Amino acid sequence: MSGTVKNNERSVRSVVKAATWRIIATCDTIFLSWIFTGQISAALKIGATEVLTKIGLFYLHERIWFRLNFGKIYGVDRKTIVGEKHYRSLVKGISWRFFGTLDTIIIALFWTGDFTKAFAIGGTEIITKVGLFWVHERVWLRIKWGKNPSVPSIQTWEDTVAEAPVVILDHSGENTALTARS
Fold it and tell me: How far apart, in whole angstroms, are the C-alpha atoms of residue 155 and residue 146?
């Protein structure tokens, strides 16, 4: 891909997206920590520590993924991002979960001193957080706030396909473009 890819998101959007994710994820961590430790005080300490470490980690993760072309759908100019595929959200969630779980295990071990509880909390949140993260990503793809108005907004793969031009080869050998919607 040649040239500069047009950025359709502002940094402030990534900050707010990181904060909303952190609220959801911290509630999940506190709940799981309470289940596995049986102590609300330990669960709250783990959750509070996570807020401090993970907002920065998530912001960094967002900015790295923003630079990756994997799973992005580009317009005909091959510079404008017009959509993202579902598998991008899934792989992005898995990559975040690796770093997020490692962070949770270290924090839980620090506050509980118990490897079994730390790995139980971290292991369980792999399942809960990948699902929650995927939902969070898909919701944010539909939120228009914080997107650069000079660049077309990202759409889901389904929206892009529904609006994609259809090319028909007529008998004279010329291509005719028609829109999929009437």
Answer: 14
